[in-house]
Amino acid sequence: MKRDERRQQIIDLLVENGVVDLEELAKRFAVSKMTIHRDLDELEAGGLLRKVRGGATIEAGMQFESDFRLRERQGSEGKERMALEALELVEPGMTVMVNDGSMAAMLGSMLPRKKPLTVITNNASILEALKFEKGIDLIALGGMYSSKFNGYFGVLAEQNLTSLRADLAFLSSPAVSGNQVFHMDADVIRVKKAMLNAAVKACLLVNHTRFDRVALHVLANLDYFDWVITDQVPEPNVQQQLVDAGIQLTIARSLENT
């Protein structure tokens, strides 16, 4: 098996399982552990995974988030349910902001169902999906493109947001702990904060597996958001923390009930 094919299969295993074991990979591909180490080093250098003791993962860490291309392949059913739940908050004629991320990209693709709308975004997938949609006034924030997050960030995006206002902002996060929402990237967090400041109301979209996690930078307190939507009921300790903080959590309905 060629090197690139082996590395692609490692990525496929990570998308399926979230983690891989170094020894199991060596046996699976009939190569040495040093060869697998080199594969993982190269993939980590490309921002596709995070090496951990004995293997690798694509799960978010304090300062790591996996590449957009991997995240968009994960949990599509849960993302669809959350997107449909979030779509219920949108009314024709609104101005809405949508941030970067694969969850947000799925919501963005559904927005034409509520047109006419004005959509403000830094999400490259949403810009691509909506650029020819009649009834959608599309405002691209501009800035420096990040392939890792498939979005636009930096001073230009932040400055543009200071002169814009929206009825509703949809934001996503890889980490929520207690009453705080986090992200691991400084450029991303600045744009998200600017969106929060530019919107009358805000909705947080967060996968249930991202609760009880922290990342390097604090985005906001949970009570800053008017709605918090997730795909499944989180662990009991997380539920209690949310109750203690007075946070109303919305569990996205099953697709059969939408």
From TrEMBL:
PROSITE patterns: HTH_DEOR_1, HTH_DEOR_2. The keyword DNA-binding applies. InterPro entries: Carb_Metab_HTH_regulators (IPR050313), DeoR-like_C (IPR014036), DeoR_HTH (IPR001034), NagB/RpiA_transferase-like (IPR037171), Tscrpt_reg_HTH_DeoR_CS (IPR018356), WH-like_DNA-bd_sf (IPR036388), WH_DNA-bd_sf (IPR036390). Residues 3-58 form the HTH deoR-type domain. It comes from the Bacteria. GO terms for molecular function: DNA binding; DNA-binding transcription factor activity. The keyword Transcription regulation applies. Keywords: DNA-binding, Transcription, Transcription regulation. Signal peptide: none annotated. This is DeoR family transcriptional regulator. It comes from Marinomonas rhizomae.
